[in-house]
């Protein structure tokens, strides 16, 4: 069974990016992202891909990279000579129904704002991994906000069928809180 997982890092105001990139560097969070996604499928929107590709950060190594874009054919023909479809592919479908996936694949949806909004509204997610940073970074791109939250403090929109199963303050030079949301509470020993 394919697992659908949303993974995001947000600043204290719900920001996820500025000028097409992440305006912070949290080594512990990057390591966590790498460990969780390595060997699996990551799905990102076109703007996220373009921002990463422009800085030679995409496609991410060791993962099947899928970019959701209305310009899938154009992007596919542009990148096909350099990258095999098993490493980098393009689709118009957030379900990736037109791309061959392993039967037990883990699909990590990793941004940006438009993709997060579509995924939260249209897919039944199995897990949300959320890194909550303690600082603000003057972002211009944001994670979807819970419409019931106050204007005083940002609260991310989490689908009502998911509950917070785990939360841990990650220490280091730049501490952050790592949260896991699942349909049923996790049992952690």
Main attributes of the structure:
Dihydrofolate Reductase, subunit A; two-stranded antiparallel sheet; 8-stranded mixed β-sheet; alpha/beta; 189 residues
CATH architecture: 3-Layer(aba) Sandwich
DSSP helix fraction: 10-25%
Calculate the terminal CA-CA distance, rounded to whole Å. 25 Å
**What is the structural class?**
alpha/beta
The CATH topology: Dihydrofolate Reductase, subunit A
Query: Which percent band covers the strand fraction?
Result: 25-35%
Rg to the nearest angstrom? 16 Å
What's the β-strand tally?
Answer: 10
- Order of strands across the main sheet: 5-4-3-6-1-7-10-9
Which runs of at least 5 residues are low in confidence (pLDDT < 50)?
none
**Shape call:** globular
The CATH class is Alpha Beta
Largest sheet: 8 strands, mixed
Order of helices and strands: EEHEHEHEEHEEEE
**The CATH H-level homologous superfamily:** Dihydrofolate Reductase, subunit A
Number of domains: 1
Separate helix tally: 4
The mean pLDDT is 91
Kindly describe this structure:
The structure is a single chain. With 189 residues, the protein is α/β, with parallel strands linked by helices. The protein has a single domain (3-182), classed as Dihydrofolate Reductase, subunit A. It is 20% helix and 28% strand. It contains 4 helices and 10 strands, in the order ββαβαβαββαββββ. The protein has helices at 27-37, 46-54, 72-79, 113-122, and strands at residues 3-10, 15-17, 41-45, 64-68, 88-91, 106-109, 127-133, 141-142, 163-170, 176-182. β9 and β10 form a beta hairpin. The chain is globular. This is dihydrofolate reductase. Its EC number is 1.5.1.3. InterPro entries: DHFR (IPR012259), DHFR-like_dom_sf (IPR024072), DHFR_CS (IPR017925), DHFR_dom (IPR001796).
